[in-house]
């Protein structure tokens, strides 16, 4: 068991931190999706990297083993809302960080029109004003699964009778 005060990192930092083109792309994505810092972007990139590595490892397999593992991967990514149901391993390799960021609760709330800006969506979420089904979610980075989009709603305060 690890130290509970020092949780394991969920991301990897870029190998070369000062590439001008990458810095510009990161800054643009931070503004477009209303991210708090680059760490949130790196977490999304790490999630994508994990699934792309799994898809790449499928290409060395043949026969029935590959079919089983590829179907499991596609079903998982389909449930996450990242790929269509009839996708294959090649489709997984074409995913980008934007696809992961589009499934964050913060972005979905903004896209549904429940908030005026991505920053407003983040504030609503952190102030416990957004619920997914019956659960109040306070993490803007919550990954919205397929089918949960319809269940997202703003909590209204109870009316006090005068």
Task: Describe how the helices and strands are arranged.
Blueprint: H1 20-33, H2 38-58, H3 63-80, H4 89-93, H5 97-102, H6 105-111, H7 118-126, E1 130-132, E2 135-136, E3 152-154
Antiparallel strand pairs: 1-2, 1-3
If you had to describe this structure to a student in words, what would you say it looks like?
The protein has 162 residues and is mainly α. It has two domains: 10-101, no CATH class; 103-157, Structural Genomics Hypothetical 15.5 Kd Protein In mrcA-pckA Intergenic Region, Chain A (Roll). Helix content is 49%, strand content 5%. It has helices at 20-33, 38-58, 63-80, 89-93, 97-102, 105-111, 118-126, and strands at residues 130-132, 135-136, 152-154. A three-stranded antiparallel β-sheet has the order 2-1-3, with no helix packed on it. The longest helix is centred in the first third of the chain and has 21 residues, at 38-58. It is globular and about 70 Å long. The termini are far apart.
Uncertain spans, ≥5 residues at pLDDT below 50? none
Shape: globular
What is the share of helical residues? 40-55%
Radius of gyration: 18 Å
Q: Which structural class should the secondary elements be placed in?
A: mainly alpha
What is the first-to-last residue Cα distance?
54 Å
Task: Output the helix-strand order.
Answer: HHHHHHHEEE
Summarize model confidence as the mean pLDDT: 94
Strand tally is 3
Largest sheet: 3 strands, antiparallel
Strand ordering within the main sheet: 2-1-3
Give the total of domains: 2
Please tally the helical runs, counting DSSP H or I stretches of 4 or more residues: 7
Q: Strand percentage, roughly?
A: under 5%
């Amino acid at each position: 068991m690890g130290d509970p005060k020092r949780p394991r990192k969920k991301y990897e930092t870029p190998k070369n931190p000062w590439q001008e083109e990458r810095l510009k792309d990161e800054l643009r994505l931070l503004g477009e999706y209303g991210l708090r810092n680059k760490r949130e972007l790196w977490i999304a990139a790490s999630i994508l990297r994990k699934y792309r590595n799994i898809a790449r490892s499928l290409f060395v397999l043949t026969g029935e083993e590959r079919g089983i593992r590829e179907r499991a991967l596609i079903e998982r990514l389909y449930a996450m809302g990242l790929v269509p149901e009839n996708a294959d391993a090649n489709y997984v390799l074409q995913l980008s960080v934007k696809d992961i960021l589009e499934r964050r609760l913060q972005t979905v709330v903004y896209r549904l029109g429940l908030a005026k800006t991505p920053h407003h969506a983040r504030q609503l979420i952190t102030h416990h004003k957004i619920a997914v089904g019956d659960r109040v979610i306070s993490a803007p980075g919550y990954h919205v699964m397929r089918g949960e989009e319809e269940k997202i709603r703003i909590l209204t305060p109870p009316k006090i009778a005068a």
